[in-house]
Amino acid sequence: MPAQDDDLPSSALSVQDTRTPYQVTPLQAGALAPASPAVPKPAPAPKLARRTPGRDGKVLGQPCFVLHSYPYKETSLIVDMFTRDFGRIGVVAKGAKRPLSKLRGVLQTFQPLSISFSGKSELRTLIDAEWVGGMLPLEKTALLCGFYLNELLVKLLARDDPHPALFDHYVATLNELAHGEPAQIALRKFERALLKETGVAADLTRCTSTRARVEAGGQYVVDPERGARTALASDTWPAVSGKTLIDMEREDYGDPQTQAQSKQLMRFLLAYHLGGAPLNTRQILIDLMQL
């Protein structure tokens, strides 16, 4: 479940106290370069072996991240996880709240894990979880941005729907945030990737009414179900320039106008696809940084 406005999950408040410095993983090809020249050139993170379920229903060594967790009975947790090959899954981490449990300090948000689990129902059983490392921890505003990403995934991804490309984009976005890249650009790129991967984002460079290419000097609105079309005087949807739509499709957010218009457009599209459900962490970010 997502965080509340005035009460982020305890993991959000204490995560930095339980972490040690990690080796930096290089950003993927095409990602923005680290903002600070003082960051040393990192060594590659270890590759994780991906395995498919065996005959006994067990999955071993699956790359994943914790999205959210909440108590289950006296000593256990239910954990919402984002895995590379199985998408968003729920697992029961038995005994994870016990003081001497190996899982107690491992099931932290924004840390790359390798997990093993079993079961075929909606709620699996966590067998093991190991910290992989290789990523910088998120701090301050970047930490809130990370919880915003997690809330989007929890609310927009169906269970057991694999999205390996989105998983890789999530890792790249966490790296960008950890390296101090502009948050509003990193978030816009991830929001767009999320809508594409879930199949609800149309090509922004084509006008749906004429199938002609969007013109940079034109004014358009984006129908959440169909895509871009020429703006009308009677439209109440946010109007954006053709250049903004072209820039978004190219992931080019260098233009301040593109940044401002894409922010309003993505708020509108996300609100529509969420059915009006509020994004609690986004409201915190709006209050703090007007993202």
Q: Provide the low-confidence segments as ranges.
A: 1-52
What would the average pLDDT be, to the nearest integer? 82
- Provide a count of the helices: 7
Number of strands: 8
Brief account:
This protein is of the alpha+beta class and 291 residues long. The chain contains 7 helices and 8 strands. 31% of the residues lie in helices and 19% in strands.
Write structural notes for this entry.
- The protein is α+β, with helices and mostly antiparallel strands and 291 residues long.
- The chain contains 7 helices and 8 strands, in the order αβββββαααβββααα.
- It has a 5-stranded mixed beta barrel with strand order 1-2-3-5-4. A 3-stranded antiparallel sheet has the order 7-6-8.
- Strand 1 and strand 2 form a beta hairpin.
- The chain is elongated.
- The two termini are 22 Å apart.
Salient structural properties:
7 helices, five-stranded mixed barrel, alpha+beta, 291 residues, three-stranded antiparallel β-sheet, 19% strand, single chain
Write the layout of secondary structure elements.
Elements: H1 10-14, E1 59-72, E2 76-83, E3 87-93, E4 113-118, E5 123-131, H2 140-156, H3 164-178, H4 183-197, E6 219-223, E7 227-230, E8 240-241, H5 242-250, H6 256-273, H7 280-289
Helix pairs in contact: 2-3, 2-4, 2-7, 3-4, 4-6, 5-6
